[in-house]
Amino acid sequence: MYYKTRGYRIFNIFNTCFLILLALMCIVPLLHVLAVSFSAKSAADANLVGLWPKQFSLEAYKKTIDNPVFLHSIWVSVKRTVLGTLLTLLITFLAAYPLSKENSVFKGRNVYSWLFVFTMVFNGGLIPFYIVIQKIGLMDSFWVLVLPGAVNTFLVILMLNFFRGIPKELEEAALIDGAGHFRTLFSIFLPISLPSIATIALFSMVFHWNSWFDGLLYMNNSKQFPLATFLQTVIIQRDMSSMSVNPKEMELISQTTVRAAQIFIGAAPILMVYPFLQKYFVKGMTLGSVKE
Amino acid sequence: MRTLKKTWQFHVMLLPAMIFLIIFSFIPMLGIVMAFQDYKPWLGITGSEWVGLDNFRYLFERNDSMQVIWNTLIIAILKMIFNLLVPFIFAILLNEIRKAAIQRTVQTLVYLPHFLSWVILGGILLDLLATDGFVNQILGSFGIKPIFFLGDNNWFRFTVILTDVWKEFGYNTIIFLAALAGINPSLYEAAEMDGANRWKQTRFITMPSLIPMAVVVGTLALGNVLNAGFDQIFNLYNPLVYQKGDIIDTFVYRTAILNGEMGFGTAIGLFKSAISMALILVSYRLAKKWAGYRIF
């Protein structure tokens, strides 16, 4: 066998080391941030922190939590994530059912499919979209974070492909017994679709938690920002005006450690759902690639 | 079966989605008429002056916008190449690891950056890649002078492409791993019988089996040729590197939203959307022809 040869064994050792090194490169930056966030200002400012905290301190987290704007931004993010995900789930679930039917069963299917696909292929661009948001009065409203992203064609396709895998007999039995399509969808399809629904919910949650540009673009009041947008202005644009600390306090607390703490808090929910993400997203990724 | 023919329920089910599509996708499409206007917010679409193709002419006459289109193409195409090549090789190497525990751990770690936003990663990278940051300290210990990765026009594109590959290569590997799992093991057994070593097996069985998938991924990526990654660039760039790092999307944001040249911004957006659409249509046709790929 090839894997018993000396050459292959040597290759295998190098290969394993190389891949482990690559894997570490994906996680080390995050560990570094975590270590900085728990370090004292002096150590962080002198760039002494590697992957383990130097002079352990919770000061950065205390400062972060003390900031009401920061706390409110977490609340906005949680709200948009929950509401946005629920809305997306409902719309996707409803729309995918008719689209999963054969053309012979649902005559209008093709027209609808093309409308959906067209939005994937073409868009009006940023400026007309911005004007529409302005005209319908969503500017500075919380709902601008929830409504525009509610329909995602990619997720609809994911759902409808799952529906297509459900045996036809199930549906036919329900219809013969006198159930309407709504009843069939919610009593028969819903319970067996839970894995797909979980996949869609996870995609949608990550999307909402990570979205930052909509807040920046459509909200003028930085006190209403979701967390991702708040972090963008504080961490990337280094705009400390939304941190409610006076210059004296500023001296006490190192910006580096506070930034690190904020970055970590921003990443934490993603890290928490990551085990589930990993379980489900492979399905989404390989969608369409392994079809007859 | 009469009930099957009652399709009114289907239309009702599609209604919510259609309302959202109309408001947030189709109405903005009508807004592209602004590309042919000198749009003034106080005059609106009906009141603004029509200028024909002036915005487009302006787009091709301005030096900065040509530079921006050029930057976008270079960054996007290099990203496409490396985001195909690196996962291709990585998947093959990962597949060689026989210990399932190591394989799974490596997978878990490399998929992670994909799920973090560019705000988070940008925040981390701004610190790590600073002239006195972690990376330059390591380079310094080898006697290399500090490199201003995010503020030097000679380094910015390199940094953008490298960090994008770093974020996405794990996730992009998934699809190749799926293809690898689908290779018939008897092919390897037969090759083994014929005395082929592992490299020969890789060269003549594994790689050819992955090529169709690589073709599909590569063709489908064509539609992104003008998408150089707004989220990433916007969170990493600064005025020092506009010359080499400014792309269409960031340029539109600054000229239209910040400077108020709405008509001009719409024209660039339309230019981008139209080219992208053409490329997507061509690429789907090619993917279907070459690899039997069908999405809808």
Provide an overview of this structure.
The complex is a heterodimer of chains A (about 290) and B (about 300). Chain A has 14 helices and no strands. By secondary structure, chain A is an all-alpha fold. Mean pLDDT of chain A is about 85; it is low at about 290. Chain B is mainly alpha-helical. Chain B has one domain (about 60-290): Orthogonal Bundle (MetI-like fold), CATH 1.10.3720.10. Helices cover about 75% and strands about 0% of the residues of chain B. Chain B has 15 helices and 2 strands. The interface between A and B is large, with 103 and 100 residues.
Query: How many strands, what sense, and barrel or not for the largest sheet of chain B?
Result: 2 strands, antiparallel
* Major protein interface: A-B, 103 and 100 residues
Please state the overall shape of chain B, judged from the principal axes of the Cα atoms: globular
Report the uncertain regions of chain B. Answer: none
Please state the average pLDDT score of chain B: 90
CATH class of chain B: Mainly Alpha
Provide the succession of SSEs of chain A.
HHHHHHHHHHHHHH
Strand content of chain A: under 5%
Helix vs. strand class of chain B: mainly alpha
From the N-terminal CA to the C-terminal CA of chain B, the straight-line distance is 27 Å
Task: Name the CATH architecture of the largest domain in chain A.
Answer: Orthogonal Bundle
Helix content of chain B: over 70%
